[in-house]
UniProtKB/TrEMBL annotation:
Residues 56-300 form the AB hydrolase-1 domain. Keywords: Hydrolase. This is Hydrolase. One of its GO terms (cellular component) is membrane. One of its GO terms (molecular function) is hydrolase activity. It comes from Streptomyces zinciresistens K42. The lineage of its organism: Bacteria, Bacillati, Actinomycetota, Actinomycetes, Kitasatosporales. Transmembrane segments: none annotated.
Amino acid sequence: MSSTELPSVPAANVLPKVAAVRVAEGERLRSVGLPGVTLTVRSRPPAREGLPPAFYVHGLGGSSQNWSALMEQLEGDVDGEAVDLPGFGDSPPPDDGDYSLTAHARAVIRCLDASGRGPVHLFGNSLGGAVSTRVAAVRPDLVRTLTLVSPALPEIRVQRSAVPTGLLAVPGVTALFTRLTRQWTAEQRVRGVLQLCYGDPARVSPEGFGDAVQEMERRLQLPYFWDAMTRSARGLVNAYTLGGQHALWRQAERVLAPTFLVYGGRDQLVGHRMSERAVRAFRDSRLLSLPEAGHVAMMEYPDVVARAVRAFLAEAGDGRGDGGADALPAGSGS
């Protein structure tokens, strides 16, 4: 493994003529070279030495930036790092073009193994929640606790609002969508994403909206942007069809780590009703239900989620915060 600090502008031979990835104050990026894949890892210096390690995995179409707000909230509790999955954020595509769920999980495992930071407090949102579930099931030695925000686990009755995202997995649909939306501005695309992912898009500040537009403009210049989206969506759908020991719900049942589940009442991509099944599947679980939140509660309500995580970590015996009342027993809501 090789690890290097990233300059403010990506190397010319990686992302030519594409703007630099945004790095918030106090954050830093580094590039980690692993067999078959190069990953960008975002981190914040911990508030003090000796804090337990945490690792954050984003969802489909997202990046490590999705965790910036929560990472800042928890910098006094954990030593956090967030990864850009292959083909997302500032990570280039994998050498073999494999965007399956197993491949994403393998990239996370390789990164954790190479860093020597495990076991970690593992966080996952959406696609990253499914990836993290698989990691926790197959490599329990790497995970001390598992926190899942709207994890993309299989649903029999998919919400109608989630269908367009799933259709990305259908051959030809992405090319058609690209042609139909060719004239859409980055601002229009961001507004659509916020409408889909937030319970209340008005919670996004003008500055945050501007940053999102700039990031969308950057991503649309990447030649592999739609390929990474399409193949990752297809990989997730394919994972839903697997049976036996590879079935995601079966793997959820195998997770040994204490698990904290966060679901939004206004989530248009993962049905809130799935929280009940998740509580039953994960053997040692707690539930935080946020009625007003959408699909990315850690972005929409980072302070609430952070307080709940502190309480969860304290209960799990690895907390460094002052606790709180937001981490609820399995089957409860707020």
